[in-house]
Specification:
Blueprint lengths: L3 E9 L3 H13 L6 E9 L3 H8 L8 E5 L4 H14 L15 H4 L5 E5 L3 E3 L16 E4 L5 H4 L2 H9 L11 E8 H8 L1 H15 L6 H9 L3 E4 L3 E2 L11 E3 L19 H8 L3 H4 L2 H25 L5 H20 L1
Parallel strand pairs: 1-2, 1-4, 2-3, 6-8, 9-10
Antiparallel strand pairs: 4-7, 5-10, 6-7
Helix pairs in contact: 1-10, 12-13
């Protein structure tokens, strides 16, 4: 009998359209016998939008459950502490809800977490076949070059807690496959909570994301695997199964960068199957059309400035032209 694949997603009311698109993409790329249970940790999602998410079961029968964290105030406090010590930090406290996964799903043996701004473009059931018996958590292999140049303080801290090669052993929290059974048996949920507090008490002047806390909690038993995730939606990996839309490349943004993204159309293919699109067709088609138009104009600007002889002058003129395009289209 096919085992149910448990998938955890986190969303607030502002990201439910991305949440729905991700679920659609997984269901549309599944086999007939595949069984899914989507466990959604939600922050203030309205009943109307929850109902729209439930409607996705019409695409393929699956289970969808909603959960609220009882530790919201704790994660708000963690976020506020980090913001006070790293003034450039602006991430929403909900990113720290990933730390709540072992507590919320203590009755499960394992669960796969996916970032909400991702889509599946192939069947992902083989992700669940990855052997995690020796690990507390498995993550997408992600060589993080910036840790040497951009944040050497964090690199040195990771080495101090026993991570020998932070660049190649960095935890990107886009995909997290939790071995909940091993975490409960070997660490224990009470100890896990103490370790989270300990990490914040000792290292909040250095760390600034939930990824650093996860590395502290599970150091020594983190598995690194190529789950087929393109961390950047414009990447060119041959075995891509999961695509991540970073920053201003999110397809539903009105302030889209205008750069062409390889999987942009694929996102819209799945999004059009959601109730969110169907209930607001004209507004979303306007976003799609304007963003595609902006991509075309950006390409034209690149062609125009290509003939300017010096890179510095070319960059300045391009920036002015792009700003003009943006002000014209976004007004």
């Amino acid at each position: 009998m096919q085992e149910t694949m448990n998938i955890c997603l986190i969303s607030d009311n502002n990201f439910v359209n991305y949440l729905a698109t991700l679920i659609v993409s997984i269901l549309k790329n599944s086999n007939e016998e595949d069984k899914f249970h989507f466990h959604i940790i939600e922050v203030d999602i309205t009943d109307e939008n929850k109902s729209k998410i439930i409607q996705l079961k019409e695409i393929k029968n699956c289970e969808i459950s909603f959960y609220k964290s009882t530790n919201i105030e704790k994660y708000k406090n963690i976020s506020n502490i980090i913001k006070s010590k790293h003034t450039w930090h602006s991430w929403h406290y909900s990113v720290f809800l990933k730390l709540d996964i072992p507590f919320l799903f203590k009755d499960l043996d394992n669960i796969l977490f996916l970032d909400t701004d991702t889509i599946a473009i192939e069947n992902i059931n083989d992700v669940f076949s990855y052997d995690i018996c020796n690990y507390y958590i498995a993550v997408q292999y992600f060589p993080y070059k910036g840790i040497d140049n951009d944040i050497p303080k964090v690199r040195d801290w990771l080495k101090s807690i026993g991570i020998k090669n932070p660049k190649n052993e960095y935890v990107s929290s886009i995909i997290l496959y939790f071995n909940l059974k091993k975490i409960k048996e070997e660490i224990g949920l009470d100890n896990l909570e103490k370790h989270i507090d300990e990490c914040m008490d000792k290292y909040s002047s250095t760390i600034f994301t939930e990824e650093h806390i996860l590395m502290y909690l599970f150091n020594g038993k983190i598995g690194y695997n190529d789950f087929g995730c393109n961390i950047d939606a414009n990447g060119g990996k041959l075995n891509t199964k999961i695509v991540h839309f970073i920053g201003t490349f999110k397809p539903l943004l009105k302030g889209y960068t205008g750069r062409e993204v390889k999987f942009y159309n694929k996102f819209w293919e799945y999004f059009t199957l959601t109730p969110f699109f169907r209930d607001n067709i004209f507004d979303y088609m306007n976003i799609f059309a304007m963003n595609k138009y902006k991509v075309t104009l950006y390409k034209l600007v690149d062609k125009i400035v290509w003939y300017i002889p010096t890179a510095k002058l070319r960059g300045r003129i391009r920036e002015k032209m792009i700003n003009k395009v943006n002000s014209m289209l976004d007004s």
